[in-house]
Structures are given as structure tokens and as C-alpha cells.
Queue: 3 jobs
Job 1
Amino acid sequence: MFQWRVGVVGGRWPPCSPKPRPGDWCSLGRVLPDVSRLDLLSDSDLEALRKALSPLTADLIARAEAVLPGSLDAVRLPVVQAWWRHQPGPGPILARLFAYADHLTVAEAEQVLGGLLPRLSEAGVLRSTAEGVSSAYVLMPFEGLLILSDPFGPDDPVMGPGATTYELARAIPNSAARALDVGTGAGTLALLLAKRGATKVVATDLSPRAITLTRFNARLANVHVDARVGDLLAPVAGEQFDLVVAQPPFVVRPAAIDAKTTLHGGPQGDELAFRLLAELDGVLAPQGRALVRFDSPVLSTPLIARVRTALGRDDLRLTMFLGPPVSPERYASAYASAMDPRLGEDYRRYASAYYEHLLAHGFERTTPSLLALDRRPPHYAAALRPPNLARADAATIALTETALAMAGLDDSSLLGVRLRTQPSARVVQDQPLGGEPNFHLRFTTGVAEDQEIGESVAVLLDGFGEGATVSAGLSAFAAAHGDPGPKEPLLRFVRDALSKGILVPA
């Protein structure tokens, strides 16, 4: 979505290879705008800007994202830009300018921005080009906020909301007294925390540019965020927080590619994330909670064991949600196309470098993960594999944590617990001609995986229906089967079903 076009700036072309003509696609070598000029915008300018941008909504962006979904930007962006030009109203014009890297005519820009046009140009947000007016930044709606950030490219841009940001945002509870966003980028999650009522929000980032953009976005959102420059948790040494969120850079860094602080986490990709995990204990309040989103290569040691070692303590409630693994081919293509959206020679060079690096290190798969931890008893460490991480929202995480805690109860306590099958669970039966029937358990929500089950399991789950004690559920199973056998295997099944999200608290 974040492609880039260039025109004449100050009578000369920005450095770009090859030298572009007006209207050419270009993201390589682009000079990032001077963020200090954003301070030229007064509070009254920002108030007027908020009003002018009100038609630019997340629902509007979602409409455009339904055009050629899944296609690379180089393929879909020209089509989406053309599609936008046929949509009525000011929202599509704003989306073209700020979210889809299109050029507006001066008349179009004046229509949606009016007297703000010269002020935004003076602040370096807008620029005159051979084709009219373009934006030097990306400006995206996010959860009722507006986030100004750099377009993605091969330089070192400050990132706004992306796919992992949305995954973390869904996982964040509605409120926390003292909140910390580590590696804040353009401040997206920090602003969201402030909007949701945190009494104190601190944002850290190694990039001074990121902190400047975070402070500007806080002004634009009219919320307070204490933004500090520094490496990971160094700027908050000695402080404690009730909630810590982070999506540290986690992309592998081949030796043939220059390191980007906003992208690469190290040769393995997850080194920075694991360094953060090792330091978390020092900033978590006694009842504090952390949510960390990162990718990690599949190694011989299970990821959850590596995470527990990095955390350095066992008295934690640790729940990990692991997304579908990514192949080296898809991994290399995704990050190479992000760094060269024109899919030219640089794309081929990047794709080859990523792919060869992954194979040379034996990284046959990469696992996306969302980690939730705190110190509430009972303590456990569990990993679940939902169909996608979007299902691990705050309510589902809380329900899953309660279920995992119940799985550790002794037999007598477990028998008195009220459970139900996951609300979206459906048992589907199919029977091939001349064969035995097969039963499949399907889910449309929650974190449980679809799976094939036996008929007896289907009967046992049906006994919990809309809610029953474990004792009653086992009694219903016994009535259906006559002689259910010993109770211990059935309790083991209940515990397993709780740990996999199949059974949940009623």
C-alpha cells in the first residue's frame, strides 16, 4: 500500500536510480523529509487539520484494501489509485494523497485542505511536483487516530501502523495505569494506550526521528505521551509499568544487506526481541503485564523453551500464540518487494540475499508469535497455534489464560469447574461412499485449531453444550456410552482441551 512517486523538488531530482522522469515509480535513495519542520504547525493548524482529515477513516481504507487483495504493491497500486479517482467525496481524495502515494491537482488539494495547503507545504508535509501536489509522508487512520510516518523503503524510515501493529492493538486491554511502548516508531501504540485511558504513557525508540514523529502525532491526537530516545529499556531504567508492549525489529539481516534499525533484528532476526525479553523483568510492576510481537526462525529448541530461558524466571504466566509458519521463499519475496516495490534489479538482489541467508542458516520456516506474560498465579508456560494471530484479541487471550490456569487444577477442583465448548465450535461429519464416518471439529473464532476427532470425542464435547460442570459433562458422556471406563483419561482429555482452546470457562 505504501508505494512512492517522485517529482521535481526544489528544481532538482532527489537521488534515485535510475534517474526518474515525472511520474516514474521511485522509492530507492529517496531523501526523507526534515521532521523538524513539523514544529512549524501550530496547535490551531493541527485543530484545522484534524477537522479536514475527518473523512479519512479506517472503513474508507478497508474499501481500497479489498481491491486486488494479496497482490504486490507494484501490481495493485496503480489500479487502486485509478479506482480511488472514481470514488466521490473528500475522503477518497485524502486517501489518494496521504495513504496511496498519488498526486493531486492543486484544485483537488485546495478542495480538501483549503487554507492549510501553504501551511502543510511550509512544514514539509506536502510538496509541489511536476504533476501537482504530493505528500512527503504517509498519514493513516488507526483506531480513531491519525498516524504520520515515513513511506517504507530501503533507507531507514520511521514506521507507522502495519500488520503486526494491528495484531498487538487487538491484544491490548482497554486500560492500564502506567504503560510503556518499546520501539514506538511513529508512536502508534503509545497513542492508542493514551487514548484508551492510561494515566502515564512512555514511548522509547533508538531513532531520534521516530521520537520527533511520535511527539508530533501526540500533538495531532491531542494526547500526552512521554517520548524518549534510547535503546530498548535504557530510557526507563528504574521505572515500573503495568503494561509493556513492543514489536521490536525481527527481520533477519543478511551480510549482503545494509542493516536497517527499523527492520532488522540481527542475523537470526529475533536477537533484539530476545534481548528485550531478558530485560523485561526490570520494568514490570508486581502485577505488570507484557505483550510482545516478533517473528523467530524454527530451531531445534522449541521457541517457548528459548523464551523461558531468556526471561530468566519460572514464576510467570506465559502464553504464546504462534501463527502459521512462513517458508523461506515467501519470506524472501515479502521483504525484498518491500525494499524495492518496483520489483527491479534491487528486488532480485534482495530476494536472493534473504533466501540464501535463510538456507545457509538452516531456517526452513519462520514463526510469527505473540507473547503475553505476567506474574499472576498459577504459573505456567503454554504455546497455542491459532489459524492466525488476528484471533488472539484481548478478550480471547484473557479467556485462554483462564482456561490454561484451570487445566492445572487438581482432579477434585477441576470436576467442579463449569466449562463449555468454544462458542464457534462445530462438529462436521462426512462419510465417504462405503466408508466409515469422519468427524471434524471446526472453529471460526478463538485460538483452537481445526482438527479431525473421533465420534466419542464429539459425544464428550456435546455433553458440555452451552455450559456444564466437568462432573456433569463426564456424567452425560457416561450416560451416552454406558460404560465410560476410568475417569482419569477423561480428565486428561478435559485438561488437553482446555490447553488447546477447545473447552473454555462457561
Job 2
Amino acid sequence: MIFLYIDPGTGSMLFTILIGLLGTAVYLLRNVWVKIRFWLTGGAKDKQQAQDRVPYAIFTDSKRYWNVFGPICDEFEKRQQPLVYMTASPDDPALKKEYKYVKPEFIGEGNRAFAHLNFLKADILLSSTPGLEVYQWKRSKEVKWYVHIPHAASDISLYRMFGIDYYDAILLSGEYQMRQVRRLEELRGLPAKELQLVGIPYLDAMEQRLESAPALEKKETTVLLAPSWGPSAILGRYGKEAVKALLATGYHVIIRPHPQSFTAEKEMLEGLMAEFPDGPQLEWNRDNDNFDVLRRSDILISDFSGVIFDYALIFKKPVIYADTTFDKSPYDACWLDEEPWTFTTLPKIGRQLKESDFGDLKQIIADMLGDPGYKEAIEAARRETWAHIGESAARTADYMIAKEAELAGTEK
């Protein structure tokens, strides 16, 4: 009798692939129904509107990514280049902009947005949304070139599995991301995508904003707690013990919960805010824009939130990150042998916080604020993950315009 052994890592990966294939089948059937319903409910009008070909288009599935696309739209407007910005958020800030050459459009939420995209006619479509050709978002036969741009300064391999496989090009910010893409292509037998280092548009904009901001007045040491949400996040995992530990330091404390916490964890959050109300030492922050609280604070405590790298790379201040576990199995990272850049870099720019450290939190913060080594590590991280600082919007526009001309030339 022959026994077959599959190690846990491989088994997890195979199971994930199976789930992905089943999910794809479900979404294919759903997509057929969406298209049928699309036609039966007057979708022909939307299709007619999509008949006019545009040279450049952007799609975003959420208003949260306006910080990525805003600088790019501004660049196209400055160059007097026509661009259609399509959003799935009815309250996207772009819809209030008074552009002349950039045309913001709300194309519906959920499946209606994807149905619109399936009929799109454009030479080039730029998006930060993963999953093209994997679930309900399919490549339009009338779009010549799909370009992906990440919305965070981290590993390109931390998308859900197969998230970037079917783009034609990816605009990146670090050499390590390029290596990850090439390795995934090799492992999966995919054709090589065009890879271009352009930088990070929203970080460029944030740094420009910081440079022009007025000087801060002298203040007491301020600690910002800005976690993600869910049972593994700081407030969900440690709750009031974390708040008590922060207040025990004597430092001024700002707590900025993740917006999703106010809906998904409303009861837990309301309990904490009632037990620890705003006062001279503590403030709860719900500003739409996090720039001011990031600038006012001296150190950040978070978990796996993307705000960690925004804070470190822009404000060049150390971070404390919670002791959390990360399961790579649903992500492209599980195909790669190397540890993700994110998790090798965190210990260099900050310190891990364990529950056993709560009693020593004041000393930990003081030690980190007085250690110049963190600033050196942050500068190294900037060099590794943020190419062409200050040039990303221009380089993105350069790439799209040059590619559109190239595509037009091949048709002659």
C-alpha cells in the first residue's frame, strides 16, 4: 500500500486553490445572471454610454483610494489630457472636483460597477483593485491594456491569491516587489507583465503636505493608538487592558479606531468610549483625514494596519506593533519562499508589543523615542519601498501616455 504525504503548507495551498476555483465557478454563474439582469433592467442605456472609446480610464472600487488617484487625476488635468475616473462610491471626493479634462463618474456599486466595466471601451485602464479575471470583474474585449497600481507601501504578494495575475502591467515602488511578481509568474507559467517603478502617489502628496504645514507648537509627549479592526486587532484582542496601559504611562493619548469598528464592533467600541471618556489626557479621534493626528503624535501603536508605513515613511517616527499572527495561506505570499518585506522590516522600524509588556509600556516608549537607530532604519525602508519620491504622479502619467501612443502605433 502506498501512502501519500502532503505537508501542511502544501495542503493549505492546495485547499486554497480549490476554494478559489470553486469561488470562480460560482462567480462565473453569478456573472451570467448579472449580465442577463443588466439587459432586462435597462442596461442597454449604460452600454450605449460606454460605446465612446476613451484613451485613458481609472477605476476604483472605493473612495478610500482617492488619495492614490487624486494626484494622478491632477496630473492629467494639468497636461490637458482627457481621462475618465470611474468610481463605485457615490460619495467619492472626485465627484465634487471641477475638472475640465478629467471626468469623474459614479458607475454603480458592486456588480453593477463590474457590469459597466465589462462593456468599457478604453485604450488603457488603471486600477488598484485586485482580482481582474478571477471573480466577477472580467476583461473587456474593448480595453487594450490593464494597468495595476498598489495602494500601499508593502509587498505586492500580500494580495489574495491570483489578485494581480491578469493585468498587463503593474506600476510599483520597490525592486523587491518586482522580484515577487517575476517569481509568481515563473511558478504559475504566466507571461511576463510590464513592470515599471513609478513610486507612491499618495505618499508623495502627503509628504508635500507635511513640508508646507506650519510648525507645531511645543506639546507634551503624545501617543497615537490607531489599530485595524476585528478580533485580532488591538482593541478587539486586548480591549480595556490596552487603554489602561496607555493611560498608566502618563503620556497624552489619542485613540483613533478604524472606521469599520464603529459598525462591525459598535458595542465593544461604545463600551470602551463610555468607560474611558474624552478628558485632559485622552481624546478619541474620528476625523475623516488622519494627517493632523499623525503629525501631532510622537509615536504610533498599531497592529497590522497599513497606517504603520504611512506614519514611519512620512513622519519618520518609530512605531509599536501588536503581537499578531498572519496566515499566509490565502495570499500570493504563500507561494514564495522568502518572508514578506513587510514582516522583515517591521522589527527594524519599530518594536513588537506583547501583552506581557503592558506594565513596561512607558519605558518602552521612552526608549524608542530616544533611540536614533529607528530613524536610520526608517530611512533604509524608504529607499527600499519608495522609488522616485515626489515623481510618482508624473511618472504614472508618462507611462500611460507613452503606452497609449505605442498601442496606437501597433494598429497602423
Job 3
Amino acid sequence: MEIRSCPECGRVFVDTGVEVCPKCLQEEDRQFDTVRRFLQENPGVSIDHVCEETSVKKERILKFLRQGRLMQSRLTGVELRCDVCGAIILSGRVCDACVKKLQDVANELSPDSRASRTGKIHIFDHIRDTRK
């Protein structure tokens, strides 16, 4: 059991694998619901307009997109790119083609090399190296 300090409010909390304390997580979920409802009622608006109308910061809305909780297709003025190849994506961090390549690389690695090459960045590096 590890103790962390919340990056949002500074409170100390037990680390459960979530970035923020339970109180800030609850607030983040409330903001997500607000943004989701607004976008359902107003599809195709700009991210700046969503920020103005909901009082949710742009960085938080981008976080929701990166987490895959929102789809970029409901917003204008946002362009998400794949962390691996740079292709335009609608949500998340990696495009479908790179996810497939990541899965293929992970499946190809022997159990011994998997143990020595832990972490996503190593597989990302491998895919980038093979594209050159």
C-alpha cells in the first residue's frame, strides 16, 4: 500500500492506481458528465465553446479524449495524433494500425525478452525503428 499526494489538491491518499484522490476523481467525473451532456445536446461545437459553457478547462477535456472517454468527432478545433506514428485519431493515444502492430510485436517477443523489455516505450521505439 503506497501513499501519494494528489496532484490536483495536494491531499494525501492511498494509491489505488488512479492519478488523483477520491474527492478530485469525483469532481473529475462530475465534469466529465457535464461535458458529455453538453456535447450530446450540442454536437459539433468548438472545444473553446465547450470550455466557456461548462467551465471545464481545455486540458481536462483533452484528457477525457486521450482516455477514450470522449470522441473527437463531437468537437471542432481539436486534432489528436497517435503517440506512435502521428496519424490523426478520434480518441485515445494510439491509432488502430499501431495498436495492431503493438500487439504483433508483443506476441513476437519471447518470454525472456519480454522480461527484459518492460514498458510501453520500448515497444513504441521498436515500431518507430521498423518504420524508418
